[in-house]
Design goal:
The protein is built from eleven helices and 14 strands. By secondary structure, it is α+β, with helices and mostly antiparallel strands. It has a single domain, classed as Beta-lactamase, CATH 3.40.710.10. The strands form three sheets. A six-stranded antiparallel β-sheet has the order 2-1-3-6-9-8. The protein has a six-stranded antiparallel β-sheet with strand order 5-4-13-12-11-10, sandwiched between helices.
Length: about 400
Amino acid sequence: MRISVGMLLLPALAVPVAANWYESNPIYTDPADGTGPWVRGTPPSQGMNAVTLSRGVGRLKADRRTLGVIVIRNGVIVHESYYRGATQASASNVHSASKSIVAALACRAVEDGLIESLDTPICKVIPQYFAKYPSDDPRRRITVKHLMTMTSGLDWAEDDTEYEIGDSPGWVQAVLDRGMATADEENTPVAPGEVFNYSTGNTHLLSAVLHKVTGLTTAEYARRTILDGIGAEAEHWGADPEGISSGGCNVYLTARELAAFGLLYLNDGKSRNGAQVLPTWAVTASLVDYGHDYGLCWWTDVLAGQRVWQAWGWGGQVVYVIPSLKIVFVMTTNTARDGTETEPAIHEIFVRDYLIPSVTVRPKGRDRRPGLRQSKRKSQSVNRASGGKRGTREHSGHSGDTSRY
């Protein structure tokens, strides 16, 4: 395992305890690709126009940070390319795209009987962090699902709060101690489920929950379950000063590993070899718009008339899943120096103007899973993934029906 910074290769360090919330984003080298073998084919063989797709890839290649691009249709790789010294072995910090992985782990923990349900209040799982709060404190009503839908109501300003509490000896307690956000001039605290506010603090709390119920770090639980199930292994996964794995940032994976993860959401939780890595209910529950174009740590939008789902990380680390067209698209980038994205993001332009229009043969019938319904809200890309380092807004609304999952 090595770290590559530019053309410099360095020995990989042991997983460190983070001194700051976010890391410096080096590029690791994966010594072996465990996700293969893959089936490869031409775009026309999978009902896609090769010229349109190639033009779109050219747009991605022109971005100075793009490292890897993979397009899969019907389980077949129809395009794979790497740039700026990157290879299939290059593992970059996927930033907030890892939130989708942490959410998947929470679903897996429910399936494994380690968490009663997604509606379980987290104070029952990690009570030591709630001991000083009164019995009627609204923080005690925050559930696992509130964390996954970004509706905990906790006070948080993405891209600011992380730096304020990064030097704290206990990040979990520091996140909770901020208290609830307020909704009016009287400083009335919001209740869990009332307000959408994108927060890496939420997914770090989710990691603390997983740490407690599994008896393992989130990184190790991932290695033994979901990552192992798809033949992946994080080259590095950060941790806070208490040893709790970073929740929603500081996870390093290759483009192929991200693609293998995305395919779980096309295949009802099954890996490419047919193993049931995620329960089917977890896929269904994840790809539902609970409000504000957000599922269980998956963004959603309608592009070129198709419902798309995105695991989206700062700087353009993305996994797009398009169930209606049986497509997974992955892009990784180098954010060691800068990850600021344009609006709209280059990957969104690619999907809207090239990837979807390249499809010449469409599946018969219609995917009627609830997550594919048309959203009544227009997606707001400025609120999207950071991991962090990207501005967000609060939105009043609902957290969706939590009765089923």
